[in-house]
Amino acid sequence: MNKTLAVSLVTLALVPTSAEAARTPAAHWAAAGQRELASGSVLQPAAPHRWRASAPQANARAWSSFTTRMGAAWATWADGHPRQIIGSGLPAPGVIASPAEAERVAKDVLAQHLDLLAPGTSPGDFVLVSNHESAGIRSVGFQQQSAGRDVVGAQIGLSFKNDRLVMITSLAKPDVLVPPATTRATDTTIRTRARTWVDGDFSPKTLRTPGAVEGPLVLPVGDASTPRYREVVRVEVESEAPLGRWWVYLDAQTGEPVARESRMTYAQGRVFYNVPERSPIFTRSNRAAIFTEHVVDGTPQVSDIVGFVNFDGPTASVEPGLSGPLVEIIDETGPLATGSLVLSDGAGAVWSASNDERFDAQLSTFAHTSFIKGYVRNIAPDLNWLQGTIVATVNIDDQCNAMSDGDSIYFFQSSESCENTARMSDVVYHEVGHSVHWQSIVPGVGSFDGALSEGIADYLAATVVGDSGIGRGFFYDAEPLRELNPEGYEWTWPQDNGEVHAAGRIIGGALWDLRTLLIEKYGEAQGVRRADTIWYEATRRAVDMPSMYGAALVVNDDDGNLANGTPDGCEINAAFGAHGLFASNPQTSERLTAEESDGGLRVRLDLALPSFEGCPIEADARIEWGVRDGGTTEIAPMEP
Q1: What span, in angstroms and rounded, lies between the C-alpha atoms of 502 and 92?
Q2: What residues have CB less than 8 Å from 577, skipping those under 6 apart?
Q3: Using omega within 30 degrees of 0 as the cis cutoff, is the peptide bond preceding 82 cis?
Q4: Percent of the chain, pLDDT > 70?
Q5: Helices marked H in 30-98 — which ranges?
Q6: Cβ–Cβ < 8 Å for 372, 462
Q7: Phi/psi class of residue 267: alpha, beta or left (left: φ > 0; alpha: ψ in -120 to 50)?
Q8: Which of 159, 505, 567, 637 falls between 20 and 30 A from 419, CA-CA?
Q9: Which residues are 583's β-sheet partners?
Q10: How does the average pLDDT of the chain come out, rounded?
């Protein structure tokens, strides 16, 4: 029988009744990951977050061709192509074990579906930049080029799980047509004009351009509605007093400044720390000085993983250190603290500088940085950066802040308003979180985003201390600097997507809620471990806060098919949905299929977002059906 099908669907969604007003940052204080144009405007493209099971009309044919291979799939859309795709999975035998096979399959998918993934490009525009496996996920990343020049920030990443392609994330740029410059400005001109631009806005005491002039590159300088591009070269500018680091882009032919991006991530507001434990207003604890260079009875020795040193005899004289293979402390105001301890066989000796802010800052940062590197190393044993030395500069002549440049970390002195940030464990954990983010991104697959980085750095601090309110003690009181789980309210996308630290609470809150749900499901230890693993591995493959949803499903998947859910898919949906990062499109019933069998006609309705059989979203669907040649119709409920 041929049947005509009509379907009505009702969905329910909870929306916060109020939202904190977004604060627009001053132009030349654009956050890390944002692009400030020479005109003074800051490009802050709002990423999409509405999932669709169908495509916009212009992409319908290309989407149909893709889903014929992929099966059930959902996507978010931007710039005329899908921003992120997840689905039931394209079979790709052998890709997890074989980098070569993964590269072959990824290139084949790109070649066959570029009309969908990156309109106006060709396969030769994409260069392989990574082929990485971790946590059972093989991710292959491609950098977009135009006439052999890298297009800044443009990439396509494909992720495989259980030998199936389960996610594609694209920051590709369409129709990039920029003719090469006929002449090029000299390196001297480039460096001079870059320093002049930074000096005009910040007037620092010291300016440097230490690296090579890179390029030519193609730089996007328009938003999604009006894409524009310039051929540029890039040079890094460093400053002191104030401390800063920028990538400055200049016109390749004239040397005219075009744009700049801050390479620093700043923590503004309350944070905590210690040897003080969270901050000096709370309790103190003794932290083992692991992998530390001491002098024991006149001989240099590095302590072991739990802080032990060896010596002959019943006691030893120890000159404790503040450097080692994992952490090196630099004090901007003067020399490092020194001490002399007597260590007895089988006992311990404690070095304290609790009454001296400057020295206490040194000890606190050393102890907490050593600890947090070990914590993350348990989650990410393959992140080689964790095996190296992180340089931490303390007691910088400034106040109420701390920062990371993607590698080293920096902390400011105290003031009447704020605590010395080097004496607050939460701040240390937060800044190391930024560096972990920079260092762990899978090239061509993940990408740095300022708000995302703030949120995942907040989560790291929160999960370590077991408190959703981070930075207690920053303003000399017990109130948190940022609260990821405020009573009676959830930070929600896009309503709360403003200044990067405030916006970061959206993804930080979603991850904290996920952690809470997984603890309820598995118990404290396993729940935290599962949440922390999703935090780390998803962050590596995300390009912004909304894309963390798809990346989280990939990390949690167990069979290479995201359409049938994941072991913790219900918890992921609940946590991300509460923060607007998993929300349906207004057109809620997008894909209808019917399959005849001996038992009758099975009709399947897919919503505009992944709704798994084990945890469907709250919705009511009913089907009205009748024979094509007329007559009465019947209405029956559909089963979720």
Answers
A1: 41
A2: 583, 617
A3: no
A4: 87
A5: 60-70
A6: no
A7: beta
A8: 505
A9: 50
A10: 84
